[in-house]
Amino acid sequence: MIRVSNLNKSYNHPDMVLKNVSFNVQKGEFVYLSGPSGAGKTTLFRLLFADIKPDGGQIVIDGLDLIRAGADRLARLRRQMGIVFQDYKLIPNYTVFDNVALALEVAGTPRQQIQKRVWKVLKVVGIERKIERLPVQLSGGEQQRVAIARALVNNPKIILADEPTGNLDYEIAEEIMRILYYINSQGTTIVMVTHNRSLLQRFKRKVFYLDKGSLQAYVWPD
């Protein structure tokens, strides 16, 4: 599903942010990108949905070479990906329903279908009773649930999540992890950025660990 080969990124600085990073993620896997602050996690995250370009190397997602692909093909791929950010990125004056529905509206989905799909994903994340609330009326955990629902509403093949539990207390973070585990159990590939070692130990999956731009893979022992 995801193949990264010899990836380099420097931001025109002598020190490389990423150095010859290579890894594979299989269809239906749940993997973590981890490492200390400044290790290059966010840069790698942005590269995976072609928000920025590398200085060298290759990224192939679902058979598409992101470096060589044109804008139209990248746009089609992004519609098959759900992106979850640490700071939620909800539109403040949109209701829960409208925040989740926006991606479908942009794609020209019929209104009746939008209502069914939004209601379905809000039930999955357990926020359907607050469908008419504004983001300011929600807790941090509830806002993250909305952000996950928004990422899920297009039935993506892949979800990329950047520190989705970073602003939440541990109990709420566990609830978010259980939601992501459920989504993964339905066949969606998930790549999650986190530096939270407690979550890595509690919810064990393969970890791609970045440190000073270099990457190694390991699995937490039982």
Summarize the structure.
By secondary structure, the protein is of the alpha/beta class. The chain has helices spanning 41-48, 71-78, 96-106, 111-124, 140-152, 170-185, 197-202; strands spanning 2-9, 18-25, 30-34, 56-61, 64-65, 81-84, 158-162, 189-193, 206-211, 214-219.
Characterize the structure shown.
This protein is an alpha/beta fold. The chain is 34% helix and 25% strand. The protein is built from seven helices and ten strands. The chain has helices spanning 41-48, 71-78, 96-106, 111-124, 140-152, 170-185, 197-202, and strands at residues 2-9, 18-25, 30-34, 56-61, 64-65, 81-84, 158-162, 189-193, 206-211, 214-219. Strands 6-7-8-3-9-10 form a six-stranded mixed sheet, with helices on both faces. A four-stranded antiparallel sheet has the order 2-1-4-5, covered by helices on one side. It starts with a strand and ends with a strand.
